[in-house]
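agent> fetching stored inputs for the 5,6-dihydroxy-NADP docking request
agent> found them:
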Amino acid sequence: MLNFEIQNPTKIVFGKDQLPKLPQYLSNATTSKKILIAYGGGSAEKIGLLAKIRAELKDFEITEFGGIEPNPEFDTLMKAVEICREKQIGFILAVGGGSVIDGVKFISGAINYEGDPWEVLLRLEGKLFTSAVPFGTVLTIPATGSEANSGAVISRSSLKEKRTMGGPLFFPVFSFLDPSVVATLPKRQLANGITDAFMHTLEQYLTYPTDNLLQEREAEAVLSTLIEIAPKVLEDPSDYKAASNLMWCANHALNGNLRCGVPTDWATHMIGHELTALYGVDHAQSLAIVCPRLLEVKFENKKEKLAQYAKRVWNLTGENRAQEAIQQTETFFQSLGIKTHLSDYSDACSDAPTIIRNRFAERNWVAMGERQDLALDEVELIVKNAL
Ligand code: NZQ
Ligand code: ZN
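agent> prediction call returned; pasting tokens
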């Protein structure tokens, strides 16, 4: 087993009707009464969640900041940073999905940063967020696991960029996970959530055989559970049993547990972020486009683990089961209503392979994947095959 360290300080409050606990958890987290509630484009208002939160927080001094977009935009977030500085906000409550939560992670780090925070996202040498205003979350869509991890992904569409940030400062203090919100999600977002959770698990599992038998079986449990509940959630999002399993799977897929003691890949995500930045495809769609093609191109590296995945997750037993598992995975995404080629989403994408290759070269991303051997030629080929 590889060496590892793990510390996840986020308190998870899971289940229905837990919001009355919010004032107490806020008071435990900060002595400040000045709270910023950050949310997205209106769904939290529409489903009545914001009204409930306002009612619970009547003894706090609340400022609201709405309009954080899916794939949160740097320019929008900087407006919130200004408001937080001006009002001396002491705690931020993110009400939303991965985009709002990631946006809040960025805001919390940028508030006390002197200089242009974009430098941090560009990972310029010595440019780091060194403090963060504490924050908590009320999750509205099970997908990213952002509610229980310390990563964030921030977009700047004027530059066609999507960049990652993170570090131990950026764990939420608490996260409220109420599976009832799943009932309000459109089919596209349900499918996206299932796909993203599935892919987070695959990125930490479909590498090469490891000695961490527990982590391998935990990953297989998440994958099998997602396969079992996906049709149920899509058929009836108000099925609480299915919804609560989806929410817990999505959390488990990226709360840090599955990476313990095992190699991880993440190349599908790195390529996928570029597809979102360049062509605006949803995050989960980008993963469904890249994943099957990456598994084909890196088949030699991954064939043993693919065979294990085929057997334990898809119950395939034939000699060709490793290849068949790639097809099963693609069919699974398609069964959720997600298309798996870039040209399904954008007509003007024929130059994508070269653009993405060049971007990776500029950033010196020349050795990704679990064996640090994903070459630029392979990146180009994966995107070409994914068109
Ligand atoms: O903006 P509103 O009106 O709230 O609508 C949102 C948005 O349009 C809607 N929605 C959310 N909850 C809803 C709802 N609609 C109805 N009822 C509800 N209860 O869903 C749409 C998508 O929301 P978003 O937050 O963008 O979805 P998701 O949670 O999938 O987050 C995607 C973002 O997270 C990043 C992605 O790159 C992307 O920017 N990721 C973050 C990660 C992390 N921090 O760990 C890891 C992931 O790999 C991912 O990269
Ligand atoms: Zn993801």
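agent> quick read of the result: Residues 213-235 form the longest helix (23 residues).
agent> awaiting further instructions
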